[in-house]
Amino acid sequence: MDSDDEEEKKPKKKKKVKKKKAEKEDDGAGTGLKNDDDLDEDESEEKEFVFEGVTYKKTPEGEIIDHDFNYIGDDDGEGGITFTDDEALERHEASKASL
User: Fold this and answer.
1) Does the pTM exceed 0.70?
2) Contacts of 16 by beta carbon, 8 Å cutoff, 6+ apart
3) Does 69 map to a domain?
């Protein structure tokens, strides 16, 4: 008998395999971060912002956008706008005059 024949007759040992649990997606819990799915609509959409009678859009980041989608400045936190430059202020004054 060959050593090859002996190997064939020996039953093969079965290995135990542990099933892995389905990996859970990291939801960032405990980090202070939110998933996009967790954002309220109020936090992820632009809001109407009225200053001196002129209507603008305010982004969640506080940026003020005019009706032509031009960035004109930032919400100053007191109901006003910190304009990006003199041109943005002039556009606001022209919009206000046309009311």
Assistant:
1) no
2) none
3) yes
Number of structural domains the chain divides into: 1
- Give the domain range for residue 99: 46-99
Whether 37 is in a domain gets the answer: no
Looking at residue 70, what is its pLDDT?
95
CA gap 3, 92 in Å, rounded: 94
Within a domain: residue 2? no
- 74 vs 84: CA distance, rounded Å: 8
CA-CA distance, 41 to 81, in Å (whole number)?
23
Residue written as tokens 């050593």? 3
For residue 92, tell me if it sits in a domain: yes
DSSP-based three-state secondary structure for 64: strand
Taking alpha carbons only, the member of 68, 77, 48 closest to residue 87 is 68
Q: What is the mean pLDDT of each run of 10 residues along the chain (99 residues)?
A: 54 59 62 57 79 96 95 96 96 95
